């Protein structure tokens, strides 16, 4: 996308009297006006030529011109942070921009351009001063202006309130989901820390009992080495299934009871979870060479094993917290440029993590990624909004039970992201309307729309792609097509 900070091409001066009343009448804005009105407009307007790459309007500048596109292609952008985000791109003759609301009287409010406009190729414009345009509208269409003023001001006020409320609700939902996801590993780490404190205290106690048992120094050293050996063996032991672990607990418990180890059935699960077997216990008894110390030695080693396991639990829990924080950063893209070359899988994964609380345990996630896909030019934060809207709707359609499939692949010069669900499907008569603004199948009070109109604009206008819907009962898919290369005119 062109950057507004790039070198600007000088605009040619406005040329008065270039459009005749007959030529003005070919524009849909003026086709119903009288000859007298068209003559007045011709006398109070001019035409302007803008070479390719020139900046026609700059966001934030005073809105002093009303422009109508006569020929060529333009791109509209808005500045977000340090980046310019394309909001629209058009070559339709007759589209208008600039001081389009110059007829609205806002006392003391300076009107400024809300977007920047850049010519993507050689373009020509019809130009009228904002003051002339505003006065013309108020004089010629007084009743319409009263209605438009009320509509514009009312919509502006209500939209501001609704947008703020929607942003707060979206932020609240994401925050609640993230807090829910963070709470589980944080609680696990807290529980493991409390248990670890008890086990360390138990180890100190057992070590004191062993020392009080008048164990020879060399035998105590051997016991410490034996403890380290057992911990190392546990770290290298293969993982067991639930059935294998239960059988191993029975074997270990039987051996300990035969050798008068107290609390055998409490200690056996610790050794079994560590992947240790009866041969390990026999090795401990052989190396200890003092049967009367076997009970205390096994308890001491069990404390050491459990301590290692608890530390692993804490490491897993804190690692999970770090992963969630990383996913949140990737999802929000707060520390990254708005437009960059990205791997689509990163955004998909972070979105699935952020929506984990909504997806729930009843929905099975199936990932079918083509990891060989090239990076694509995109606005990752905007694409994350697309994934959020589509996945959220898919989960709601399945009512918390089913399969959510995320499939990526390449087709010609496109990267395709296919998101499917096993819900009831979208009826054909509704399929054509899913991308309409504010269209929804939800009950009153549950949202203001499917969010798919926003997704469609992001993909088509902002990325030069497309969204296709295919649906039948039990199989609904949204195919998001994204170009692999940056369009030369973007």
Brief summary:
It contains 14 helices and 16 strands.
The CATH homologous superfamily of the largest domain is named Histidine kinase-like ATPase, C-terminal domain
Q: Considering DSSP H and I runs of 4 or more, what fraction of the residues is helical?
A: 40-55%
Residue share in β-strands: 15-25%
**Order of helical and strand elements:** EHHEEEEEEEEHHHHHHHEHHEEHEEHHEE
CATH C-level class of the largest domain is Alpha Beta
Class per helix and strand makeup? alpha+beta
Q: What is the general shape?
A: elongated
- Give me the count of strands: 16
What value does the average pLDDT take? 79
Summarize the SSE layout with pairings.
Elements: E1 15-16, H1 21-24, H2 35-43, E2 45-50, E3 55-57, E4 65-71, E5 74-80, E6 83-90, E7 96-98, E8 116-119, E9 123-129, H3 130-140, H4 142-212, H5 217-236, H6 242-258, H7 264-273, H8 278-288, H9 294-332, E10 340-342, H10 344-354, H11 356-359, E11 363-368, E12 376-378, H12 380-398, E13 402-411, E14 414-421, H13 428-431, H14 452-463, E15 466-472, E16 475-483
Parallel strand pairs: 11-13
Antiparallel strand pairs: 1-2, 2-9, 3-8, 4-7, 4-9, 5-6, 5-8, 10-12, 13-14, 14-16, 15-16
Helix pairs in contact: 4-9, 5-8, 5-9, 6-7, 9-10, 10-12, 12-14
Please describe what this structure looks like.
The protein folds into 3 domains: 15-140, Sandwich (Jelly Rolls), CATH 2.60.120; 182-318, no CATH class; 333-483, 2-Layer Sandwich (Heat Shock Protein 90), CATH 3.30.565.10. Helices cover 49% and strands 19% of the residues. It has helices at 21-24, 35-43, 130-140, 142-212, 217-236, 242-258, 264-273, 278-288, 294-332, 344-354, 356-359, 380-398, 428-431, 452-463, and strands spanning 15-16, 45-50, 55-57, 65-71, 74-80, 83-90, 96-98, 116-119, 123-129, 340-342, 363-368, 376-378, 402-411, 414-421, 466-472, 475-483. The strands form 4 sheets. It has a 5-stranded antiparallel beta sheet with strand order 1-2-9-4-7. It has a 5-stranded mixed beta sheet with strand order 11-13-14-16-15. The protein starts with 14 loop residues before the first strand and ends in a 7-residue tail after the last strand. The model is unreliable at 1-9 and 444-449 (pLDDT under 50).
């Amino acid at each position: 996308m062109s950057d507004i900070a790039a070198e600007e091409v000088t605009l040619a001066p406005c040329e008065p009297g270039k459009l005749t009343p007959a030529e003005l009448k070919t524009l849909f804005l003026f086709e119903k006006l009288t000859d007298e009105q068209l003559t007045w407009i011709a006398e109070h307007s001019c035409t302007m030529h803008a070479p390719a790459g020139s900046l026609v309007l700059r966001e934030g500048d005073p809105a002093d011109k009303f422009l109508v596109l006569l020929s060529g292609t333009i791109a509209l952008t808005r500045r977000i942070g340090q980046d310019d985000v394309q909001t629209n791109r058009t070559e339709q003759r007759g589209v208008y921009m600039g001081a389009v609301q110059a007829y609205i009287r806002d006392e003391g409010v300076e009107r400024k351009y809300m977007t920047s406009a850049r010519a993507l190729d050689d373009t020509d414009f019809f130009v009228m001063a904002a003051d002339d345009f505003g006065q013309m509208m108020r004089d010629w269409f007084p009743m319409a202006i009263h209605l438009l003023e009320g509509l514009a001001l009312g919509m502006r006020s209500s939209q501001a309130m609704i947008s703020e409320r929607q942003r707060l609700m979206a932020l609240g939902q994401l925050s609640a989901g993230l807090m829910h996801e963070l709470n589980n590993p944080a609680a696990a780490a807290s529980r493991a820390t409390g248990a670890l404190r008890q086990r360390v205290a138990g180890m100190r106690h057992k070590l004191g009992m062993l020392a009080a048992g008048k164990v020879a120094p060399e035998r105590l050293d051997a016991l410490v080495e034996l403890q380290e050996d057992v911990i190392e063996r546990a770290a290298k032991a293969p993982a067991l299934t639930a059935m294998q672990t239960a059988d191993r607990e029975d074997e270990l418990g039987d051996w300990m009871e035969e050798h008068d180890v107290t609390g055998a059935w409490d200690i056996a699960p610790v050794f079994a979870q560590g992947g240790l077997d009866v041969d390990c216990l026999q090795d401990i008894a052989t190396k200890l060479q003092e049967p009367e110390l076997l009970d205390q030695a096994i308890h001491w080693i069990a404390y050491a094993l459990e301590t290692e396991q608890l530390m692993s639990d804490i490491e897993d829990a804190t690692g999970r917290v770090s992963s969630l924080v990383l996913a949140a950063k990737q999802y929000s893209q707060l520390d990254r440029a708005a437009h960059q070359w990205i791997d689509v899988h990163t955004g998909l994964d972070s979105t699935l993590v952020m929506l984990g609380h909504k997806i729930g345990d009843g929905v099975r996630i199936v990932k079918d990624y083509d990891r060989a896909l090239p990076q694509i030019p995109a606005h990752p934060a905007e694409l994350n909004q697309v994934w959020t809207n589509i996945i959220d709707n898919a989960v709601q359609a399945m009512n918390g039970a089913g399969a959510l499939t995320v499939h990526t692949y390449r087709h010609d010069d496109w990267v395709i992201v296919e998101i499917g669900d096993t819900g009831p499907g979208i009826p054909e008569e509704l399929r054509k309307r899913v991308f309409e603004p504010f269209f929804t199948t939800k009950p009153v009070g549950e949202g203001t729309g499917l969010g798919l109109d926003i997704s469609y604009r992001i993909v088509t206008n902002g990325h030069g792609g497309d969204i296709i819907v295919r649906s039948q009962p039990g199989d609904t898919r949204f195919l998001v097509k994204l170009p692999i290369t940056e369009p030369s005119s973007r």
